[in-house]
Amino acid sequence: MAFLQFIDQNADKFIARLGEAVSIPSISGDGARRPDVFRMSAWLDGQLKGLGVTTKLVDLGKHIMDNQELPLPPAILGRIGDDPKKKTVLVYGHYDVQPANKSDGWDTEPFKLVIDEKTGRLIGRGSTDDKGPILGWLNVLEAHKTLGIELPVNMRFCFEGMEENGSEGLDDLIRSEVAKGKEGWFDGVDCVCISDNYWLNSRTPCITYGLRGLVYFKLTVSGPARDLHSGVFGRMVHEPMTDLIQLMSKLVAPDGTILVPGVDDMVSAADAEERQIYEKLDYSIQDVEDAVGASITLSDDKATVIMGRMRHPSLSLHGIEGAFYGSGAKTVIPASVAGKFSIRIVPPQTPEKIEPLVVQYVEQEFAKLNSKNKLKIENLHDGRPWVADYKHWNYEAARRATETIYKQSPDLTREGGSIPVTLTFAESLGVNVLLLPMGRGDDGAHSTNEKLDRSNFIEGSKLLGTYLYEVAAATA
């Protein structure tokens, strides 16, 4: 296909464009950077328009963050092609990024794309999450426009600027567009493709058909009106920290078993056919140990460990707010402490089913302490899990495209994390949703020295384009 050669020939130009995108610090979680998120939306809108895409910037209103009211960055809706004889593919991505400062431990300036010629790594915040994949679609559009080749499908775009900060306003926008029917931007969409995740490792491409959901809890135990001196009040009063540590210790066992009754029981065991999917994955115990930097897997059985991330719920303790954590030795009894923990959930679990079980169990355990302190339980945020039909033609198209570009069959994976918009698209549009990653498992999204390998950016751009041709050829 001629466009593949074009992408190779224009690789340096495309990397320079990625450098432009990375240079805009579009951090959605930092109020001071909100103008930069808007600048990024304007830049991306301009790029799309220049490639023949009709766009609309949708105002999503305002929100409160860190006690100040801020305008939400716009969603960018786009369309190119209206041929009723062609399939229509909706593409989603996000143009905002996680915070990054050189002082966090970066080796280079995070908002300057650094090309490591020796390793081929393109280092910079947003390179892999998610500016690289968005620009992969732009590379495909540019190749077709410049060569005068018609796209094999109609395309629709939905790009947001709040993914790293709760995707506020996006679900409502999607539902309202779907409700408009033929007047809406998503009318006639046959399938959805999202490129916002990663290979399991650095060797084998994958396609992803499932994501875990999340329920994030905060347990607050409070007692005295102010912090107390342990030399004066120790063993005279009920201490909030003592109660909280007791409660946190009752949530999850060292082997990962969730101790909240009824949570693990909701999920059936994998049958032989499903277990085979995990056995076949190009991912080993060694890969896990390399990723975490220690030999600490919960089992030596590969399938068991992988299912722990992809197929089973997990409960993690994240931290304690209000506790003394500085250097030195402060003899304080904190007046109020809050423990944060979350449960990653899988079908058929939902936040609505999980929350009452947690609340009832924690309240029962607190009652057993006979404490005079007060307990408060909050659900800070949640999202439902998602699993798609991986035998659908959309997945077959992605598999064939991967085999064409990478000359190997992709791993079929479920992710341990959450991308809530995936479920919103699946439910609102009633179509198959596919996750087709560009980057590798060692890209360090959200971490210091985030990178995207040059080969993944260029071959990944070819993959996205080839996928469109395979969708066009697929028998629906």
What does this protein look like?
With 476 residues, the chain is of the alpha+beta class. It has 14 helices and 20 strands. It has helices at 2-9, 11-22, 34-50, 127-147, 170-179, 230-233, 240-249, 272-280, 285-292, 302-310, 351-368, 393-406, 421-429, 454-473, and strands at 54-58, 62-65, 68-71, 75-80, 88-94, 114-116, 121-123, 154-160, 191-194, 206-211, 213-222, 228-229, 314-321, 332-333, 336-345, 374-383, 386-387, 411-415, 432-435, 451-453. Strand 2 (62-65) and strand 3 form a beta hairpin. Helix 2 packs across helix 4. It starts with a helix and ends with a helix.
Give the secondary structure arrangement, pairings included.
Layout: H1 2-9, H2 11-22, H3 34-50, E1 54-58, E2 62-65, E3 68-71, E4 75-80, E5 88-94, E6 114-116, E7 121-123, H4 127-147, E8 154-160, H5 170-179, E9 191-194, E10 206-211, E11 213-222, E12 228-229, H6 230-233, H7 240-249, H8 272-280, H9 285-292, H10 302-310, E13 314-321, E14 332-333, E15 336-345, H11 351-368, E16 374-383, E17 386-387, H12 393-406, E18 411-415, H13 421-429, E19 432-435, E20 451-453, H14 454-473
Parallel strand pairs: 5-8, 5-9, 9-19, 10-18
Antiparallel strand pairs: 1-4, 2-3, 4-8, 6-7, 7-20, 10-17, 11-15, 11-16, 12-14, 13-15
- Please mark out the parts with pLDDT under 50 across 5 or more consecutive residues, or reply none: none
The percentage of residues in β strands lies in 15-25%
How many helices? 14
Overall helicity: 25-40%
**Strand order across the largest sheet:** 1-4-8-5-9-19
Distance between the termini: 23 Å
Largest sheet: 6 strands, mixed
Assign the structural class, choosing from mainly alpha, mainly beta, alpha/beta, alpha+beta, or little secondary structure. Answer: alpha+beta
